[in-house]
Amino acid sequence: MKILTLAVMVLIFVLAFISSIIVGQTPISVVQAIDSFLNYNEAVTEHVVVLKDRLPRAVIGAVIGACLAIAGALMQALTKNPLASPSIFGINTGAIFFVVVGIVFFSVSSLQYLMWFAFLGATIAAIFVYFLGSIGRDGLTPIKILLAGAAISALFQSYTQAILVMNEAGLQDVLFWLAGSISGRTLDMLLPVLPFMIISIITALFMGKAINLLITGDDIAKGMGQKVWLVKVVMGVIVVFLAGSSVAVVGAVGFIGLVIPHIARAFTGNDYRWLLPFAAVLGAVLLLLADVVARLLIMPQEVPIGVMTAIIGAPFFIYIAKRGVTKL
């Protein structure tokens, strides 16, 4: 039954991917889209739009959506907190802070160079949170990592605001990273971090059984012979690579990592052998559809994709919090 459901999800993903290619300010039929692949002609506007704009955008949306969803599912298992998401590691604020530093102090303007600043900032922030959350006799605990994440996020956010107050000219350049956007992204920006994403996704999918044992409790996992510390470290590294790479490419896109794991659980329960692949597909679908809607709302302008995911995710977050769910 789960295989059949997953197959349906994949079909929905294909339809969402096609919609991302044909829907927008320049309407494109399926026939024109296919023709652009088979008989590309730079003189034909529709061909250029499909291959130079819509296809890279759809690919990036699908990859980023899958990465954020898997990162969120791992975070919720690692912290045993249903409200956890990649931003708990301070990844967004760390990435944005380093982007601001690159713009203001190093006069970096190229998005490809700023992407590496963002990736570095996301990684450093996550390492700090993981280190702080692991200090003490009990090691890494859900409460400690939540507090560490909140502290590091607040720290980087205050530093970012301080720099922007002193240099307001940098605010306009960093708005992209603050809101999150797929518009104008190219495959050249995705390729440098794609190896991190692929390795992390494959590793995560093979960790389903180990994660199932981990969420039963550290004591039980240790009693079954699991090296709990190693599983947690690997999960943390995967979250850093997936979420850090995503922020580096599209900016701060929130709520995908929070919402999608819960939707996936409706089909799989807490079995991470199934939850992770479901989350990957559903994350890709949600981000693709959010991007399509973002194009249509205020044409010819676009709503930042980060705003769209917030519109979708914020009510869901309130619903979970209102239910008083405290554990998975």
TrEMBL record:
Entry keywords, A to Z: Cell membrane, Membrane, Transmembrane, Transmembrane helix, Transport
Main localization, broad class: membrane
InterPro entries assigned to the protein according to its UniProt record, in alphabetical order: ABC_BtuC-like, ABC_transptr_permease_BtuC
Family matches, as SUPFAM superfamilies: ABC transporter involved in vitamin B12 uptake, BtuC (SSF81345)
A GO BP entry: siderophore-iron import into cell
Pfam families documented for this protein: FecCD
Superkingdom of the organism of origin: Bacteria
Gene3D superfamilies: ABC transporter involved in vitamin B12 uptake, BtuC
Transmembrane segments: 57-75, 87-107, 113-133, 145-166, 186-208, 229-260, 272-290, 302-321
Membrane topology type: Multi-pass membrane protein
Compartments, as annotated in UniProt: Cell membrane
The keyword Cell membrane is assigned to this record: yes
Cellular component annotations (GO), alphabetically ordered: plasma membrane
GO terms assigned for molecular function: transmembrane transporter activity
Homology family: Belongs to the binding-protein-dependent transport system permease family. FecCD subfamily.
The protein, known as: Iron-siderophore ABC transporter permease
